[in-house]
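Protein Record: Sequence and Backbone Structure Tokens
======================================================

Structure line: whole-number tokens from a learned vocabulary of local backbone shapes, matched to residues.

Purpose: to set a sequence beside its fold so the mapping can be learned.

___
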Amino acid sequence: MSNWQSNELPIPITMLALFISSAADKIEELTSIPSIVVFYFAVVLMLIPLYIWISGWLKNRK
């Protein structure tokens, strides 16, 4: 298995972030939350798997 594909990465969180970013305009219409705030939230969600991958890489580094 490649280092890029790990069972520990939370793929559903990444998928949720992509869905939220693609539906940001509709979320803004329904909730009156500015779309830039929704995009920032999606970016934070996408950084979670990146943090997990980097922390795992640093732990396993020799």
